[in-house]
Each structure stands twice: as C-alpha cells, then as structure tokens.
Amino acid sequence: MNVQQLLIHFMDSLHNGYIAALDDLDDDQLNWRYDDNAVSPGFHAWHYVRTKDNIVNFVCQDRKPPVWLRQGLNESWGFPKVAQGTDMERGEAQSLRIPSTGDLIGYFNDVHEDVMGYLNASTDADLAETVRVVQFGHQAKSQQILQTCIAHGNGHLGQILNTRSVMGYPARIDF
Hints:
By secondary structure, the chain is mainly α. It is 63% helix and 5% strand. The longest helix has 26 residues, at 141-166.
C-alpha cells in the first residue's frame, strides 16, 4: 500500500466510524452533555469534520473554500464562519447546538465525498508537498492529514463512543 492508499483506507474507515456512532442518536442525544465540563457528541463530531474540511480543502488544496462555506452552513446553523472548535472557550463550545443528526451526517457525507475525490486524484508526490498549519508548522500534506484528520479524529470518535456508553448505548465499533 502506498501513502495515498493508506490515507484513503483510514479516512474512509474513520468516516464510517463516525456515521455508525451518530446515526442512531436523536437530536437531543446528539447535543447531550454528561456533566457541566463536557461538550456534546455533536460538538466533537462537528469539530472533527470542520477540521477535516479545512485541512483537506483549504490547506491541502491551496485555499479551496471548505464545504462549510460553500454550503453556507455557518449561516444556516448560526455557527462561527471560521472557527471550528480549536481553542474555543468551553462555554462557547457548549452553547453550539447541532441542528439535527441528519444535518450533521449530511455535512459529514458531503465533506467525505470532497475528501475522497481529492485523495483519489492525488499522487504520493502531491501528498509529499509541504503545507503549513498554524498549530503544527510546515509538514507534508500526508502528515497533516494523518495527524490532524486521522489521529485527531480518532480521539474525538473515542470521546463520542464513551459518551454513547454513558448514555447506555453500545459503542458501535463494528465499522
């Protein structure tokens, strides 16, 4: 397997994991917090998919507008235009209510389609090109995707799965 094939495999697997973790939650469960210090499963998922959208579209594709902005979701959801949760104050993060599970999954699917199109058209040479993300500096596109999308995304998926277990739902890791 080359780098491109690995990224495709793990981005696809992670996408399926998020859909499995979210698709049976109703809107209240999606926005539920188990205590005053927590953020909701919906926030974790939104933060991840916004980050994925920004990294693969805006960063790796030379400032291509993210799906978030192309679809005007910031306006229709009443969410920040640019911020995607990184370094967000807890109170602000807790105040963001995902409109519906269906809306969130729709955004997930649209971003995934965009990302898979990019990855399928990429070569290992393309993915070796260096780009800059403020928090991580200059790294190869493949490293940005591995670190910021796959590793980071698995952490948030784990938090969602943990919250599901607190709610009494199975973890649903059969993806």
